[in-house]
Write a structure and sequence with these properties.
With about 350 residues, this protein is an alpha/beta fold. It has helices at about 1-15, 30-35, 45-50, 55-60, 65, 125-130, 160-165, 180-190, 200-210, 215-220, 230-245, 260-275, 290-295, 315-320, 325-335; strands at about 70, 85-95, 95-105, 110-115, 140-150, 150, 165-170, 195, 250-255, 280-285, 295-300, 310-315. It starts with a helix and ends in a 5-residue tail after the last helix. It binds adenosine-5'-triphosphate and magnesium ion (MG).
């Protein structure tokens, strides 16, 4: 905990120069608070990356405007239970082009579900429907239901930010804010989803999130260094920590290792295995060995010529790989196409 108190002091020293804040134990954190947009011109992209495209508008304006949409984290640092996710008859379009048709899949709580299949069959699109990122794409349309612990995230009672906060996302290419410190990168996950935390809570969350992402020991002595100075694999684990900072109950990962070297890939896979049980994970991967190593459930997607993508076969990973029921699955997992 020594490091944490040092960080607290460092944070206080820095923040003392900011005239308007740090006067109360709990402060509403605004996106503009610690993020220097001049220093981080990619703020908009990253806001989307952390799953908070809507939040930047709300929080960029003023504290009062954002207050109605903020949540306060519970003081107790105890992660919420992983949540079950169930897609029911999910269809998706880009304009008139239908790319998914009637996809149903149960992603059990606390397990890792791998989505596999050839390029262009709709895996990423499906993943984006699971936390309502699909609807941010111009011309995108959606049909069906996505049940989070039995509640449809597309129901009018669910706000976009509710979905993003509970269902986090990590992308193919590590996308930390490069000029922002490691500490602030993790905290950015909170700010961008409009989550309140006081300084002590932030310190605890930074340590908790970096620990869960398997990065704490490597960076605890240099939390004030820029995120961009980390290796690619470390940057990806930093992005995982940023996603975990809001304590999501589901984490979506779209080919999180495809830009990484084998050693970093192994490290991220270990992180995924460590997180399994604490958070429900849905991972897209082209790497069959990876799917076999990290997942308990597996779904094979396919879009046959001119038709929208769908699931050919799904079930326990051992069964999908060891005794596939459909010849197309057998051919794909054996590397005969795709
Ligand atoms: N933003 C978009 N606008 C229009 N069409 C899109 C868009 N994104 C994806 N598509 C189309 O939707 C289909 C499914 O794409 P998607 O990216 O979901 O496939 P994927 O299975 O993730 O492929 P890959 O393995 O290459 O990542 C493809 O035909 C693709 O061209
Ligand atoms: Mg994809």
């Amino acid at each position: 905990m020594t490091e944490v108190s040092e960080v607290t002091e460092a944070t206080q020293a820095t923040e003392a120069t900011r005239a308007t804040e740090a006067t109360e134990a709990t402060q509403v954190i605004e996106v503009t608070d610690m993020i220097d947009t001049a220093e981080n011109p990619d703020i908009a992209e990253n806001a989307e990356a952390t799953g908070a495209a809507g939040a930047t508008q709300t929080y960029g304006a003023a504290g009062a405007a954002g207050a109605a949409d903020t949540v306060v984290l519970p003081a107790v640092v105890e992660g919420p239970a992983p949540a079950a996710l169930e897609a029911r008859a999910v269809s998706a379009w880009f304009g008139s082009h239908q790319v998914l048709s009637q996809v149903s899949l149960t992603m059990p709580a606390g397990q890792v579900t791998a989505l596999i299949g050839p390029s262009g069959c709709g895996k990423s699109t499906f993943l984006r429907t699971l936390n309502r990122m699909h609807e941010l794409i111009p011309s995108a349309q959606f049909g069906g239901e996505v049940l989070f612990e039995g509640e449809d995230i597309y129901d009018a009672s669910w706000r976009l930010t509710d979905a993003r906060r509970r269902i986090g996302m990590v992308f193919q290419k590590p996308n930390p804010f490069p000029a922002m410190s490691i500490y602030d990168n993790v905290v950015a996950g909170l700010k961008l989803t409009g989550t309140k935390a006081n300084r002590r809570e932030k310190d605890m969350l930074v340590e908790e999130s970096l620990t869960r992402a398997g990065l704490w020991k490597e960076v605890r002595d240099r939390l004030r260094q820029p995120g961009g100075a980390l290796s690619g694999g470390q940057q990806q684990r930093l992005c995982i920590a940023r996603a975990l900072a809001v304590r999501p109950r589901v984490l979506l990962m779209d080919e999180p290792c495809s830009a990484l070297d084998p050693t970093s890939t192994r490290r991220v896979e270990e992180t995924i295995q460590d997180l399994a049980g604490q958070v429900t994970i849905v991972i897209v991967t082209h790497n069959m060995q990876q799917a076999a190593r990290v997942s308990q459930q597996c779904a094979f997607f396919l879009a046959e010529q001119g038709t929208p993508g769908g699931i050919v076969e799904h079930g326990a990973t051992d069964a999908v790989f060891g005794s596939p029921q459909d010849q197309r699955t057998a051919d794909y997992v054996a590397g005969r196409f795709g």
